[in-house]
Design a protein that fits this description.
Shape: flat
Distance between the termini: 28 Å
Number of helices: 2
Helix content: 40-55%
Number of domains: 1
Structural class: alpha/beta
Radius of gyration: 12 Å
Order of helices and strands: EHEHE
Oligomer: single chain
Strand order of the largest sheet: 2-1-3
Mean pLDDT: 95
Largest sheet: 3 strands, parallel
Length: about 70
Amino acid sequence: MSSKITFVVNPVSANRTTGKEWSQIAVRLKSIIGDFTWELTSGPDTAQDIVRKALKAGTDIIVAVG
């Protein structure tokens, strides 16, 4: 049984480098761990809403990026 993984990405972290490089990072991650979903935060406290939504959708693993 495989786990459902969701990445919660802060695009402004690392002086906005995370947002600029996320698409390349995601491609590399998919080649290593397989399928996953991700969502960018859009401001303070939005990560909480993303996590709640992901858990309701059946996500087993949440990964915070940035």
